């Protein structure tokens, strides 16, 4: 949409000479409203400072069209609640330059870049008073917004084709998320809740070129724009949306990733050990009711081997069954691609592209080769060892097994082991749906171009 400027005398107290007309260069970019400071981050007295050029136009924003009421020549401004409305002050002298009884005003810098809260931004700013705090929203063209996102979400030093894939993802993601903060008066926020956006601070010639060379391009499925989900590292396989958030979308189908070099990813391989008490505390903080932890079991995996169900049992037999993305978020884990080792831990076996079988601590056992010795010396194949006692490195433990379809779960639990701890060892970082950023980097390094990268990670799509 186009921004149109017109002279408009705002009802309020003008403490400087009104501008006869607001002059600015019309822009053809779609405008994105980005929340920079809101709710708990709203500010008492936000400031602006010209990076280049001098002065500002002050007025109102009608939709996405700015209307000027006055102009000021100062370089540094402070906006703060005053009376029932808002006032604009010269930061250096404290002089009130403009005041309105309304709760909202807009400022359009005359230069290209403006400092706000340690970052440089393009575009205009809208301020809304809420009590004694001020919400700040950046009105910026879509392509300029994407230029502010790319180097925050992917290293600007990475291959350009990876950055171009990221640019198309980011543009497609933004297009599908424009109503996410509608109730708060803007389109998207500047955090990981939407996409990390820090204005022009981190932009480079390489990252800006990636945006320019893909300008206006989106991801389509059957000629319909789709959301371009992305994350850091898949650890070996992406995941279908239905197994993470629900919602079965063909273009978001999980697959084994032969390209990503997980070992080379800065966050590709991880391990965290939690005590039983820490597991209990994290579950309770997430809203689950559970007592002293007895066992933590991976009870279901997806077709590509990611955790799809995690069952935690307490000493009274009460269970919390985590599914989909809760297998990651409830315990604060890095991904859904992991194994669990420790007292009371189990692994699940799921058929996928490889043959199904029995896995203990992530390693496939030879069929028919695993046995348990009971307390009275009876030797049993593990499949029929339910209720038997096995001698392990941590003492005697009871063995239970369950089989569902092609999946067998082995559990060794010592009900008396109150000091148990569980080590979660995994690969990947993030929700696992859509494009792996480290995978995109690896594909670009192998000579693939951006649309080939996107067509691998998003099934059956076109880029146009």
UniProtKB/TrEMBL annotation:
The name this protein goes by in its record: Sporulation stage II protein D amidase enhancer LytB N-terminal domain-containing protein
Family matches, as Pfam families: SpoIID (PF08486)
Gene Ontology CC terms: outer membrane-bounded periplasmic space
Highest taxon, organism lineage: Bacteria
Keyword Signal: yes
UniProt-listed InterPro entries: Bact_Sporulation_Assoc (IPR051922), SpoIID/LytB (IPR013486), SpoIID/LytB_N (IPR013693)
Signal peptide residue numbers: 1-21
Gene Ontology annotations of biological process type: sporulation resulting in formation of a cellular spore
Keywords from the UniProt entry: Signal
All copies of domain Sporulation stage II protein D amidase enhancer LytB N-terminal, residue ranges: 132-219
Thylakoid among keywords: no
